[in-house]
Amino acid sequence: AAALRMAPALLAAQTAILAETNQWGLLYLTEYSAQNLADSWIIIALMVIFFDFAIYWQHRYFHRNKFLWRLHRVHHSDIALRASSALRFHPVEIFISMLFKSTLVLALGIPFTAVVIFEVLLNACAIFNHANIRLPKRIEKYTRALIVTPSMHRVHHSKVVSDSCSNFGFCLSIWDRLFKSFREKSITQQTDYPLGVNELGYKETQTLLALIKQPFKA
After folding, report:
1. pLDDT for the residue 32
2. What is the pLDDT of residue 214?
3. I want to staple 32 with a disulfide (CB 3.0 to 4.6 A). Which of 25, 36, 71, 196 is the partner?
4. CA distance 33 to 53
């Protein structure tokens, strides 16, 4: 949050206001005016779903690209998953992610309302699915059919690489199912499997300064 305050021009919501004011983006090439876009809940709902789809693929790419993974593993280095893990991201990754979202907003002309709803939803879902809780089995079954649950996302934080390369979704669980990255449970077949990143030592995961320096160390 502090990192983003230093670069307000990058904020997706600010970019949405700029796009609405100047009618920039693909949506404005249709018959919609700025007011129609702002008032159309169908467009807003579709754009929120599109944002979730885009963040799913951004997440996958952060795991695939070597430099981006070094940034993203700060998030994965938490060895005990809890709600605060949702806030554990390197400032450079936060900048890159916001730049990606702002680019989408500018290119498509995504309405301000859709951006705000998505940001609130993204943060709420991230805190929920990183929480140290387990839903009752019956509730878990029906909940994860729609959204990512803590048990589903916990597999993604496993130390086992094939586990961490699955369950990339933040909000809707459908993307993992559609693009074959869904994993029901850890490959270890255990319920209490180790979390974190194998290549990091304990000291590299425990202090703010160590986490900031971590991606740039040899």
Report:
1. 60
2. 87
3. 36
4. 25
